[in-house]
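User: What would this chain look like folded?
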Amino acid sequence: MILGPRQVGKTTLLEWLRSRIEGKLLLLNGDFLDDRRLLVPERSALSRLTAGLDYLFIDEAQNFENIGSCLKLLHDHFPQVRVLATGSSSFDLSARTGEPLSGRQIRHVLYPIAWSELDIGPTTTSVHLDHAMVYGSYPEVLTLASHDQKVRLLKELAADYLLKDIFAQVDVNRSKLLAILQLLAFQIGSEVSLSEVGRQVQMDVKTVSRYLHFLTEAFVVIRLGGFSRNLRKEVTKSQKIYFVDLGLRNALVQAFQPILLRDDLGRLFENLMVIERVKRNAYAGTHANLYFWRTYDRQELDLVEESEGVLRAFEFKHGGGKARIPKAWRESYPRSETRTITRDDVAEFLT
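Assistant: Here's the prediction, encoded as structure tokens.
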């Protein structure tokens, strides 16, 4: 299973693999009605479909009805066929494949281009960093030369692709979902109050939480909860929201000013470091839980990473300088690793 946002290259990856794999291979695409008719949870249909096949690739798998049952049956009754399925809406694909595929699937997430995938040297680090904070890291955006071309594409992606799977699969109020998304875009790096968001869009907290779940499952945003080891002074019920791609975030709020003119630079840098750390861990096969940390007297750290029993805490400072690690953290978690990450530390932090 390869999941991930739209337009990050899942179909391109399938085609690349298709050209390099030996054996008989069939590629189905869920955007085509006739392909969707071929994949149904019936023995006779699946027997005809897989006859003589070594590999079955299923692109846009979330568009196939009963996709979970089909994949389960293929795995259990047609073991000679290796199946690779992609989907751009985790909320739909996981809901329809999660239980049937327990113990039967290997899941990967494909993100916009990661820092480690770019050819970055000492002289180009600053250029790539500024580009990622303004235009993001979508593959096609990286291929375009001019500011106007990048902005035009990002606006198209935000308007046509960003929420396509949510609108197609679940019943939501489009205007209010977009309003929530824009409010979140202005609050990156800050703790988000769902009740306040609900008040501004005139929705109850339960519905706002439901919409936020859809945005997370569609790979638009990620959420970090508060870290605590049951200390009364630590905040645990709040959450921070970060965008999977800052280019799309900036398109939502019409903010493509150069780095030197930004008043949200610190928050952009924090968002970028968090999501790039997510990519780094995913591609390195590192399982890590990510949190933010804050006490009620407002001592805080931007990112806490828990992996294999090791705690690492990070404070992000775009402008440079060494951040002061809060006394409460040092006293509560003396064995943890703590670091300040500035522009100069990005390459090491992300690779």
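The first strand starts at residue 2 and ends at 3. If you want, I can go into more detail on any region.
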